[in-house]
Amino acid sequence: MGILLRRIAATLPVMAVVALLVFLLIHLSPGDPAALIAGDLASTDDIARLRATLGLDEPLWRQFALWAARLAHGDLGTSIFTQVPVTALLAQRIEPTLSIALVTMTIAIVFSIPLGTLAAHRAGSWIDRAVMVFSVLAFSVPVFLIGYLLIWGFAIQLQWLPVQGYARLADGVGPWLAHLVLPCVNLALVYMALLTRMTRATVLEVLQEDYIRTARAKGLAMLAVLGHALRNAAIPIATTVGVGIALLIGGVVVTETVFAIPGVGRLVIESVQRHDYPVIQSVLLLSAGVYVLVNLLIDLSYPLFDPRIRDA
Q1: Average pLDDT estimate for 3-11
Q2: pLDDT range class, residue 252, cuts 50, 70, 90
């Protein structure tokens, strides 16, 4: 319980700073926010009315206090252009984004940890070199380029999968998965590259430890030895999973654009193009909250891998 309280207490200042920066986003952007939102054809009176509607004519401290008070009550504001509450917009778009994120993480974790462990076990062999070449290429090639190549190969040439779009889970698991395969594989490649390299490095380091040599000398099966090594390398790997969430959040925006998926990423692009600041602020704040929450959960999972941390 003490670790939980300390970790939660450590996240509160982080979220406070993030909230302040997100609020200041509208004021740090160049130009008059009201003029940018109103457009080039707006008159001076139109801009003044919009500034008053958005509360931009209030002192900065009062604007922040009102905004923070609305957040405390779960009010993320209203979209300037659609006049729909931001919570309603997010509710409409959250399923595709969550589906992509969960399937992508599952693919990355299921494939990258065994690949990294195998590469560490066969360090210096052609298997190790092949895994490292794959990791470098997957991390270096832009996400949008891989996406277009996947569409061209599997959707246009082979016609195995849909080109673009999204099918909701309520419409059936089959169509839902069919529309997720290409975007999730596209996004998982970058995540896999990061996780595979970290798994290889940490497992390779553990395999040099004395207790691993002793286990080998006693004739322990290689799978059991690798299991022990992987368990002792779990903390850096779990940390990488948390850090990779940042890649995932950024990659979702590009992936949803390439595959025309109506998720939160597409909503961000549309809102940036229209200077819809309430939507942009809400998505940034929620993304930061998800990132902090995932890393908090990973921190709390450390005692499962190393019981000594529980007593620290």
Answers
A1: 73
A2: confident
Q: Helix, strand, coil % (nearest 5) of the chain?
A: 80, 0, 20
- Would you place residue 67 in the very low, low, confident or very high pLDDT band (cuts 50, 70, 90)? confident
In a domain, 59, yes or no: no
Asked if residue 283 belongs to a domain, the reply is no
Range of the domain at 158: 95-275
Q: How far apart are the first and last CA of the chain?
A: 12
* 8 Å CB contact between 120 and 200: yes
State the SS3 of 264-290: HHHHHHHHHHHCCHHHHHHHHHHHHHH
Contact 199, 237 (CB under 8 A): yes
Hey, what's the torsion of the CAs at 51, 55, 61, 64, to 10 degrees?
A: -120
Which CATH number do you get for residue 133?
1.10.3720.10
Q: How many independent structural domains does the chain possess?
A: 1
Q: Give me the residues paired with residue 85 across strands.
A: 78
Distance CA 142, CA 193 (A): 13
The verdict on residue 13 lying in a domain is no
* pLDDT tens figures, 133-186: 988 888 888 888 888 888 888 888 888 888 888 888 888 888 888 888 889 998
Q: Is the pLDDT of residue 42 over 70?
A: no
Q: Is residue 140 part of a domain?
A: yes
pLDDT band at 31 (very low <50, low <70, confident <90, very high): low
Give 212's contacts (C-beta < 8 A, 6+ positions apart): 206, 225, 228, 229
Backbone φ, ψ for residue 226 (5° rounding): -65, -35
CA 240, 287, 87: angle at the middle one, nearest 5? Answer: 150
Q: What is the pTM of this model?
A: 0.81
Radius of gyration of the chain (CA): 24
Stated as kind and residue range, the H or E segment containing 48 is helix 44-54
